[in-house]
Amino acid sequence: MGEADAPETVVVIDDDYAMRLSCCKILSKMGVRVEAFEDGTRGLAGIGRLKPGLIVVDLKMPGISGIEVTSRVHEIDPQITIVVITGYATIDTAVEAMKCGAYDFLPKPFSPDELRLIVNRGLERRRLSLESQRCEIERAMLKRRFVTFVSHQLRTPLVAIHQYLDVLKHLGDTGEVAAKREEWLDRCLKRTEELQSLIADWLTLARVEGGALMKERIKVDLRQLLPGILKTYEEMAAGEGVSLHAALSEEPLCVGGDWNCLTVLFDNLITNGIKYNRPGGTVTVSGCLSGGEVVVTVADTGIGVPDKYRPFLFDEFFRIKDDGAKKTTGTGLGLHIAKRIVSEMSGSLDFESQPGAGSTFRVRLPAWHEADSAKPGSSE
Amino acid sequence: MSAKVLLIDDDQDFRISLRSLLEGHGYEVFEAVSGHEGLRMIVEHKPDAILVDIMMETSTEGYGVTHALKYLDEYAEYRQVPVLMVSSIEESPDERFPMSPEAEMIRPDRYLTKPLDIPRFLEVLERTVGVGKGASN
């Protein structure tokens, strides 16, 4: 933000000329912008105009008192930090000023260092409080945006289904629509499936994020897990004219994780490889041990990831909708979930892609050490 | 001649059923899947009314269409074409862009929420198309 780079403004209000002069001198050496005023009325007008981050105000002044200035400043902007200057005789008043919202007080006489210290601390406090306010606003906005987005994702298929049924009812007995009835009902079923998988993916994500899936960290040999997953998707792949291949090393590929979680991870990568492929294409799952890591790659011969989408591939709800991918369905959560699972397991997930030629997703997970089993619950 | 309606919506199923409904009621229907394509089809087909979804590929794409129609010179001759905005999110520009002068610039002629209330939608459309035709004749 631009304003963070601009120097803060400090306003000094004191009826004593010498005091104003020396405060200005000390403070301007600190790199802040200083403006001084000789009484409360002028000071308040100046504050309204200058929007300072901090004010230093003498409590004992003719006209509007420092106490009154203190309480009026916070009507202008509650984020302004106020430091009051007091004589020995006015410590009680200083306490009162603190009650009115002053941040700290500086008894006269004070050294330049004391002034600098208290002003620095005051400005730091203000910076932190502004920052936390900004974070709060940002969080609220993100939350609102997320709610809007999620309800849109859920409503879109529902609306499509609703409207098919409603139009069928509305145009019920005309011959033209009767011919479409079967097709439309099929579409409705497809969209209900979409809703189902959206909700299922969501729950998975919530569980991964909540850490629930990772609680059960056991030794899993991917050489046992992966062939089973590939078998599950043989039929789906055949339907798309895609063949599945495994190239797993001879040695065990053991990682510490949760069987279900790892299944979701490779399910997502393998089904993507099938969906974003072409007839006659292949999906090859390879696995080996490399430098203390189990590395599994899922390579397809499909449409690839256009360069412009690279940064968004793992984002929630992101889906490629280019020509080659138009007919594919999905929730846009698969890769996001995969990434979450891998990072929960202290691993990494990346990809290489050649648009038009295919993509290779590479999962790296820390290899299982027998010592891991000796400390159950060490997953936190 | 039947009135022409342009549907701009990225949901294929929404377009399929709406097309049948509108054709069943004597409208000629054109479809676009994005705001960008929609603007192109406005020039190409000169519709009598435009139905546009707010949230397509980008979450404010629909507003881009109303904005372009109202403020870009190349669409000046279509400025009078009525725009009905539909969305499953009940949110006007005032809510989406609070305190922003933008809200005024992207205001469509009508808001409708999804799912459409069919009888009411047909009535609104009929009235809207009537007004649009009146203005251009």
Characteristics:
heterodimer; A: alpha/beta; 5-stranded mixed beta sheet; B: 137 residues; alpha/beta; 6 helices; 5 strands
Summarize the structure in words.
- The complex is a heterodimer of chains A (380) and B (137).
- Chain A has helices spanning 2-5, 17-28, 40-50, 66-76, 91-99, 112-170, 175-209, 222-232, 234-239, 259-275, 334-344, 370-374; strands at 9-13, 33-37, 54-58, 81-86, 104-107, 218-221, 243-248, 254-257, 282-290, 293-300, 348-354, 358-366.
- Chain A is an alpha/beta fold.
- The longest helix of chain A is centred in the middle third of the chain and has 59 residues, at 112-170.
- Chain B has helices at 12-24, 35-45, 61-71, 93-96, 102-105, 118-136, and strands at 4-8, 28-32, 49-53, 83-87, 110-113.
- With 137 residues, chain B is α/β, with parallel strands linked by helices.
- Chain A binds chain B through residues 148-149, 151-152, 155-156, 158-164, 166-167, 170-171, 174, 176-177, 180, 184, 187, 191, 321, and chain B through 11, 13-14, 16-18, 20-21, 24, 55, 57, 59, 88-89, 91, 114-116, 118.
